[in-house]
Design a protein that fits this description.
homodimer, 412 residues, alpha/beta, 2 domains, 7-stranded mixed sheet, 4-stranded antiparallel sheet, 15 strands, 13% strand, globular, EC 3.7.1.3 (chains A, B), pyridoxal phosphate binding (chains A, B), Kynureninase (chains A, B), kynureninase activity (chains A, B), pyridoxal phosphate (chains A, B)
């Protein structure tokens, strides 16, 4: 069956999430397929930012810490995120950057498993996790070790020597989704602590950390949760580990009684201990707008649409752009994919630049990956159709060969 | 000589910084003396926040990382802060929270002095520094040690056993200012690495880190730099230490080539290595507005006004509120003070609450400190006069004894 524009439009008509699109600012004529890097702006973010700046900071000033509950934002937003990732209330705080939270999480994981010294990571996944764990391991001394294994090597490498298994569920390049339940079960059967990085999962698909019995988790809010550029990350610690272990970045926000200004550190109760210093309130408050929108959505409906969007994209690229040398990098089975699709092409870089110039915003990942994220809250099936039409036009016209698309600059 | 309102007004007439006041949003009738906790809002922050949200995030989306130079904000703002604290270009980045930067700084300090294991802190100063160093020391193991010493004990305690001396220049409670040059010289003569916390110094008084030969420094932007609630902090590392030591929170923003997505960490050059993860761009961009305002100011003029404001306040309180049991906690010599004044009173808490209700916003610090910050950019001498008149009225009328002022809640 040949896929048509009419088919795409019909899917939009049936889409139970179609009403969410209007809640986002989208550029006319642009098809934004990079929400897996930076989510689109919820329209309500404009008002919220103005309110925090003009009213809360500008007028209430220091009193806003209580009056506008700035102090409890990490917990309040954390509880909302918890509801999206199968965590309990009081198990998540929204704070700091993902890498900093990962440092806390892995340090706690190692303390929870003190007889072992190995941290296992998937080396090919987003490398900041490698960098952070390499920094931690170097600091802890020669006994400690980073072990890299790719997904097909997990069975052999997750063994009784591993203290902490730290994995990103959805691969940042390929979009491959790991089986959180099975891997957690396997690793825990070997006595490992399991940490999940949900950067490409939270708001992209249903996650159930407690069903999987995850020990710790981290993730960001600026991709599928649409929290704004560099908006604060989150950290989850299962309740069973609370008050048993202290994270090393022990700042005053994690103190039992921050306003007693006691000389010595005394860890706060529960998830509070995972906090460190004063948070960037503006970024934090605006992040809540995106999280709130996601909380209105049924995660099963979100997943269904995500899978249909990515499938339609794959099918259309293969129908319309056949013969141009693209090979699918993402899993063909939608059950094994996150909410993004990657194709490989030797001229990936200029093709992505030409696509952006044509109003189809995806991104390039070295050495040869064209990466497209699909945000079920604001991407439509018709978007997918038009994106692929422009894609085909660029390939047919060979426009990607123009010199301006071949100049390299920093990409995100 | 009795001090009068006319005298205060005359000082305002002569004030070379008087034109800066109009650049800040100030509540009519309110006298804000808490800029040492959260600086007032520059009016331009409203427009900047809207621009970042609506235009940069909302319209340019992911392309803003290059187009609007989001990636280089930490360095760009860092260079501006550098000019305010006597640091060179490329020696400061604006990033993360103060406590997190302190963790990086002390970890680097210990690596620069590997044969020693003691970190010296002033235990009575703002305790998050104690907490952070306690967390770091605990993580590094039993060999390491935190030593607390008060300022009169520095001579005896800063010795050849100390690896790192980590001091906050202006005491958060008393406003006492340490002699940065002399202490740095003394500590370095004993072979110590010296780290300065400039939270109550940056934008409050002239600082010259390189003249003092400081090794590292941290500080916040949300007090006298008026960067907004919880706006990102900064970290300084003297050029002579660059590329010699790696901080442990080694995230991708500190990598030599972040967009090569290499598996292994390779430290970035110079100050870049002090970065960790993706920054909250909204908070960071708005912080620049406050920093830019401070960069318009002559630091000697700022210091002169700060000293006159604090002196006028002390003199007026002692003239108008004599006999009510206040004792000056801050140094009487303006050369030894930062830009704040602290008085002790056994009923400090309700008096501060009554003052706030009367539109004089200062804060209380346990057990008995009334703390007032003076921001030369927006506080006037007439402010000081009226603040003390309201203060006197509260004491004369005994209004502070009203029950509503005696209910404790979290204070900042």
């Amino acid at each position: 069956m040949t896929l048509t524009l009419e088919h795409a439009r019909k899917l939009d008509t049936w889409d139970p999430l179609a009403n969410m699109r209007d809640k986002f600012a989208l550029n006319t004529g642009e098809i934004y397929l990079d929400g897996n890097s930076l989510g689109a702006m919820p329209k309500a973010a404009v008002k919220r930012a103005a309110e925090v700046v003009e009213n809360e900071w500008g007028k209430s000033l220091i009193q806003s810490w209580n009056k506008h509950q700035w102090f409890s934002l990490p917990q309040r937003i954390g509880d909302k995120i918890a509801s999206l990732i199968g965590a309990g209330q009081g198990e998540v705080v929204c704070t700091d950057a993902t890498g900093i939270n990962l440092y806390k999480a892995v340090a706690c994981g190692l303390k929870l498993n003190p007889s072992r010294k190995v941290v296992l990571l998937e080396g090919s996944n987003f490398p900041t996790n490698n960098y952070i764990v390499q920094g931690l391991v170097k600091q802890l001394g020669d006994d400690y070790e980073v072990r890299f294994a790719e997904d097909h090597e997990f069975d052999d490498n997750i063994d009784e020597s591993v203290a902490v298994v730290c994995l990103t569920q959805v691969h940042y390049k390929s979009g491959r989704k790991l089986d959180m339940d099975a891997i957690t079960r396997h690793a825990q059967s070997k006595g490992c602590i399991v940490i999940w990085d949900l950067c490409h999962s939270a708001g992209a698909l249903p996650v159930n950390l407690n069903q999987a019995n995850a020990d710790l988790a981290v993730g960001c809010t600026y991709k599928y949760l649409n929290g704004g550029p560099g908006s604060p990350a989150f950290i989850f610690m299962a309740k069973r580990h609370h008050n048993k272990v202290e994270q090393p970045l022990s700042g005053w926000w994690g103190h039992q009684a921050p306003f007693d200004f006691k000389r010595d550190y005394q860890a706060g109760q529960g998830i509070n201990q995972l906090l460190t210093g004063t948070q960037g309130i503006l970024s934090l408050a605006v992040a809540e707008v995106g999280v709130d929108l996601m909380c209105q959505v049924d995660m099963q409906q979100l997943r269904a649409k995500s899978q249909k969007l990515t499938q339609l994209f794959i099918d259309l690229v293969e129908q319309e752009c056949a013969g141009y040398g693209f090979s699918l990098v993402s899993p063909r089975d939608p059950e094994l994919r996150g909410s993004q699709v990657a194709f490989a092409h030797e001229h990936g870089y200029p093709i992505v630049q030409a696509l952006i110039a044509a109003g189809v915003v995806g991104d390039f990942r070295a050495p040869d990956i064209l990466r497209f994220g699909f945000a079920p809250l604001y991407n439509s099936y018709e978007d997918v159709w038009h994106a692929v039409q422009r894609f085909k036009d660029i390939m047919q016209s060979q426009r990607w060969q123009q010199p301006e698309f071949n100049q390299r600059h920093a990409v995100t």
